[in-house]
Amino acid sequence: MKTGIKILLVVVLVLSLAGFIYAEEKMTLKPLRCCIGGTYDGITKDSPNCPYGPKPGKFTMIIHQTDCGSAVYGEVLDIATGAPKTKFEGTVTPIPRSNCCMLTGKAKGVPGTPDAECVHEVKAKICKTTTGKWEVINGTYTATAGKCCSGTFSMKQR
After folding, report:
1. Same domain, yes or no: 66 and 91
2. E strand or H helix at 68, and its extent?
3. How much is the pLDDT for 48?
4. CA 104 to chain centre
């Protein structure tokens, strides 16, 4: 009988300790807030099968976000003129147990620009750096309409 009580006490102790560790982990891991609104400098790299020939390009993107919510929108600006050339709408959601969020959406060309007929699906893992700024290392843009290029992009928050 004494052995049974010892085993029961050990089981209770182990379960209590496991519960404490789990509760402590839940208290210390705060979900990341994907507050990514801001101005970004970026670089694109078209895929090799681009209809116009692959070329790298630079861009500025402004992302707007209300109260760190999941809905984001913005525009990609022409570096030379500062005028919007693409409008973006999408969502941003935290990636569990990381300092990153998933950014997905659609980019549509602005009427009167060379990209007016282009529509792209955009996907990117955007991570908070040690400096507190956001950065995309390997995002993708995939043409879904128009005679447009697909490719990859990176960007850093100013």
Report:
1. yes
2. none
3. 92
4. 7
Whole-angstrom distance, CA of residue 88 vs CA of residue 153? 15
The reply to whether 76 and 11 lie within a common domain is no
Please report the pLDDT score of residue 115 as a whole number: 87
Place of tokens 């509760």: 23
**Does residue 132 sit in the same domain as residue 65?**
yes
Side-chain-side CA neighbours of 32 within 13 Å: the count stands at: 20
Residue 119 scores a pLDDT above 60: yes
Regarding whether 49 and 99 lie in a shared domain, the answer is: yes
Closest CA to 122 of 82, 84, 75: 75
**Counted domains in the chain:** 2
In a shared domain, residues 112 and 64: yes
Structural domain span for residue 106: 38-157
Share of the chain above pLDDT 90, in %: 70
Amino acid at 63: I
Return the C-alpha torsion angle 89, 35, 131, 156, nearest 10: 0
Residues 123, 63 within the same domain? yes
pTM of the model: 0.79
